[in-house]
Write a structure and sequence with these properties.
Blueprint: H1 29-35, H2 62-73, H3 75-85, H4 95-106, H5 116-135, H6 140-151, H7 170-178, H8 189-195, E1 210-211, H9 213-218, E2 251-262, E3 269-275, E4 278-283, E5 287-292, E6 301-302, E7 306-309, E8 315-323, E9 328-336, E10 341-350, E11 353-360, E12 368-374, E13 377-382, E14 387-393, E15 397-404, E16 413-418, E17 426-431, E18 435-440, E19 450-453, E20 459-464, E21 471-476, E22 481-485, E23 494-496, E24 512-514, E25 519-523, E26 529-534, E27 540-545, E28 552-554, E29 563-567, E30 570-578
Parallel strand pairs: 2-6
Antiparallel strand pairs: 1-10, 2-30, 3-4, 4-5, 5-7, 8-9, 9-10, 10-11, 12-13, 13-14, 14-15, 16-17, 17-18, 18-19, 20-21, 21-22, 22-23, 24-25, 25-26, 26-27, 28-29, 29-30
Helix pairs in contact: 2-5, 3-5, 3-6, 4-5, 6-8
């Protein structure tokens, strides 16, 4: 656009003296408000006045570009100035007249002493106003700027009594100069976002828990045992420690019933518990499953009543708890590798996850590797080398009663189990130092009551005899399981061999007492076999090929009770076989 000649006639009220003249680059407060330009710093000593007829080109130096540049690069500033001169009465004014009117209203008068820089700056203001009028942006500029300013109000203290200007966002420069085709006053992304209606995201409602199939199955909701016809159901005892009558025929081995408790989402079970007609399992990827034990017949494929994810880490142990006047097993304790112990209500569920009564991650600084429960007391063993004994508050969490630091010389504690007759005060542990230790919470000492050097490297598991509080069976990474009498801890009572093949094994396995404690069952890494040992003699009784290595074993004190074996996405049910 050609540059119009500047009007350099003196203002109506001339300056009376050179000392009263405006300094170079100074702008009055009224001009600064209307033109929205940054106040240019006045030099310490004003240069000598330039004659009005001197209209040559601006000298090329850094100060000129720095001073003049911002005015031409800020379309938002010029939009604000132009919008004040545009009214509804001027809508029919031609571009030339309107631009002339806008320029006349917005141009501050030039003094006789104005420099070429001042004149060029005023000319750019006039040209910008004219361009805005041509684009029809005079009326919209005020509304746009007000919206942006409301969204981008400066935070913090800006100083009192001093007007400051918000820095121009980088996005504005990109949208008007670097994208090609953008014109002064065009909408940028920030302005569009400011003009859009911003609705707050609704606060997510808490999940709605509903009655689960566990409640309908056995928790007083009118459920009945499934009809099995003439088939003989597999007898599951009321609990793992429930004693039963000994068979008159000698125990020989276990046989497969063909009954399978399936869950396609539970790839590996690491812990199994049974109580009051419910069977619970937990394991890989923090998942769990609950099945009904009533009416399970040979060859049946039983789907879970409840299945879901409890934790982020794998579940090390689950324990069913009785609760309420009817004493139904409606609660489940579980612990995980991410260091959390939780209590869950199995009668309420949302998307397969039971209602969490509470979760406690304050006991240990590492993952929980093992958990056991007795008489509403919980023993936990952790990767941080500590063992804790806590009391269960069904409503509020765990109340820690005892804590043993560095229980196994700072190594991981792999297993913890309550002594059956210890009144929830005596417990045994196995750890990475290869030792098996017995702790008595009734004593004042910080050390163990008994310590046994059980295995060459790690001691991975420990199980108590169901009726003899002096006997434990242990296993590690060596191919031998061992039976200890805690009254003579220096040497094992029996060393069990033949269930593992080769030397050192690479998988954790857990031998368990069965048949009321008269026998021991062990799976065999490297053999995929199930081996039965005599507890009294320490010798093998039978061995049968399973075709798989169980990930968990669940046995019962009742001699007639079945044996549960964890396998891929299922639990297989075996029952004891007796010789005639």
């Amino acid at each position: 656009m050609p540059t119009a000649p500047l009007d350099v006639s003196p203002p109506a009220k001339a300056l009376t003296s050179p000392s009263a003249a405006a300094p170079l680059g100074a702008v009055s407060p009224e001009d600064r408000k209307e033109c929205s330009v940054i106040q240019e710093a006045a030099p310490q000593t004003p240069p000598p006045p330039v004659e009005p007829e001197q209209t040559g080109a601006e000298p090329e130096h850094a100060g000129t570009d720095a001073e003049a540049g911002p005015v031409a690069e800020e379309p938002g500033t010029q939009e604000e100035a132009g919008s004040e001169s545009a009214t509804d009465d001027e809508s029919d004014v031609a571009f030339g007249d309107r631009a002339k009117s806008a320029g006349a209203e917005r141009e501050p008068p030039l003094a006789d002493t104005a420099t070429d820089v001042e004149r060029q700056r005023q000319e750019r203001i006039r040209q910008n106003l004219a361009r805005m009028a041509e684009l029809g942006l005079m009326d919209a500029a005020d509304e746009m700027r007000n919206l942006v300013e409301r969204e981008k109000r400066p935070r913090g203290r800006q100083g009192r009594g001093k007007k400051t200007r918000e820095p121009r966002p980088t996005e504005v420069r990109r949208s008007t100069r670097n994208r090609g085709g953008a014109t002064p006053g065009s909408l940028n992304e920030e302005a569009i976002a400011a003009l859009a209606v911003r609705e707050r995201e609704p606060t997510p409602e808490p999940p709605e828990f509903v009655n689960s199939d566990v409640l309908r199955y056995c928790c007083g909701d009118g459920a009945e045992a499934p009809d099995t016809g003439s088939a003989v159901t597999i007898p599951f005892p009321p609990s793992r420690m429930s004693a039963g009558a000994e068979s008159s025929a000698p125990f020989q081995a276990y046989r497969d019933t063909g009954a399978v408790l399936v869950d396609s989402s539970l790839s590996r079970a690491y812990s199994i518990d049974c109580l009051g007609g419910l069977i619970a399992a937990g394991g890989h990827q923090g998942r769990f499953s609950v099945w009904g034990a009533q009416g399970v017949v040979p060859g049946a494929e039983v789907e879970p009543l409840l299945s879901g994810k409890l934790f982020r880490g794998w579940v090390c142990d689950v324990r069913l708890l009785r609760h309420g006047d009817a004493g139904k097993p409606s609660l489940m304790l579980a612990a995980s590798n991410d260091g959390v112990v939780g209590l869950f209500d199995l009668t309420q569920e949302h998307g397969g996850r039971p209602l969490g009564r509470w979760e406690d991650a304050s006991l240990h600084n590492g993952g929980v590797f093992s958990l056991d429960e007795q008489a509403l007391r919980v023993a936990t063993a952790s990767k941080d080398g500590t063992v804790c004994l806590s009391r269960v508050d069904l409503a509020g969490g765990l109340a820690q009663e005892r804590r043993w630091d560095d229980a196994h010389d700072g190594g991981v504690v792999k297993s913890v189990r309550f002594q059956p007759g210890g009144g929830a005060q005596v417990l045994g542990t196995a750890g990475n130092d290869g030792c098996v230790k017995v702790w008595d919470a009734r004593g004042a000492g910080a050390g163990p009551a008994v310590s046994m050097a059980a295995h060459d490297s790690c001691a991975n598991s420990l199980e108590w005899h169901p009726s003899d509080d002096n006997l434990v069976v242990t296993a590690g990474f060596d191919p031998e399981a061992k039976v200890f009498d805690v009254r003579s801890p220096s040497v094992p009572l029996h060393v069990l061999r033949g269930h593992c093949r080769g030397g050192r094994v690479s998988k954790i396995y857990r031998p368990v007492f069965v048949d009321g404690g008269r026998h021991i069952v062990a799976s065999g890494p490297g053999t995929d076999a199930l081996t039965v040992f005599s507890t009294a003699a320490g010798t093998g009784v039978s061995q049968g090929d399973l075709g798989f290595l169980p990930t968990a074993l669940a046995a019962f004190a009742d001699p007639a009770a079945p044996l549960l074996l964890g396998t891929t996405k299922a639990l297989q049910v075996f029952v004891p076989s007796h010789t005639a």
